[in-house]
Amino acid sequence: MMRLRRRWAYRVLIPLALLAIGCVSLFFALPSLLIAPASVAKSDVILHGAISKHSAADKYVIDLYRRGVARKIVCVDSQISWDLYPSDYVRESLISQGVPAEDVISLRLPISPCAGAVLPRIVEFVKANGWKSALYVTHPEDSRYSDSLARRFFEREGVAFAVSYSPEDSEELTRDWRRTHWKTQRMVGEAMIIALDRFYSECR
Amino acid sequence: MIGSVCLLAVYFLTPVLLNKVAEGLIREDSLVKADAIVALAGDNRCNREKRAAELWRQGWGDYVVVSGMSYAWGFHTGEAARRYVMSLGVPGEKIFMINETLNTRAEARALDDLMRERGWNSAIVVTSAFHSRRATYTIERAALGRSFYSSPVPVGSPEWTPRAWWSRREDVYVTVREFTSWANTLIGGWQ
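ok -> structure tokens follow
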């Protein structure tokens, strides 16, 4: 009887221990799982989606523009407070740093539950402007997921697509990320988004 | 036979249990007149600010407090919230703002400082329903000796809804994230 009980205890404890080890390993591996190598491909337009309090991607986007990677920049974001679209301000900031006003556009997106729900709108905008290729500048932790999810939406419509991010952002995000609230929050949040999106057709 | 009964029980009881668990995130107190009505940051639709303005117009508080952060591009989410609350009929001199509130604990500390400075002893906390229990818990611990009453934004689309939350992508994300945040708050983890 004792032996039987022990055997059942092992049957329960071993999978639980393995699950715990798996979760901890997954947590530590998040940076390498989420961050893809940045790719800079010459494109018709740069889609600037790395707009947040902790991002220095503006400098990177300006650098790409000056290097002739693309002729136009579209700042993409949705409302974060009442009638407040950060992309409008990012556009102004890029202009004040020397990018010609006619080359920067602010694209206001609706609030949506997931990226997959607004991607068709971005693709439509790119196509409406006659652009055939797009370089999406995003947050480092979103790079691998965007590279698979957004690529599908763009390539389905015949638009070549590449994903990049600011090296400075990547360095900052991965530095001591397990001890910093916003960094851990962003890594874990992205992992949750990727896992959840698979279950909802509107997000895939 | 017993196995089938167990399976059926799990099938029918799981949704009930999941609903109950999500409802546990909500704290709604009876309304009491307070010194201030605080709309916590983090609602891009500004339903928290709308609810705070509504409570102010009904006379539940003397002042409205909005919350937000400044960004390098020269805008402040708290300023946008203030403008919105003013557009709903609350005079500018009745609105206060707490700044650089990156998370609920930072917000609770900033609110405690403001209440001490203004000599306020009570406040109505307005936030999204899923956040209401944790927010009020965090604020009560940061501002000991003061009274707080939770009056969250009503549930219902597009706001988070506890009923069958697992069937909606955004509600699943919010619910799971909220439980993770609860764990972090209780173990005193990331600040």
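Chain A has one domain: 35-203.
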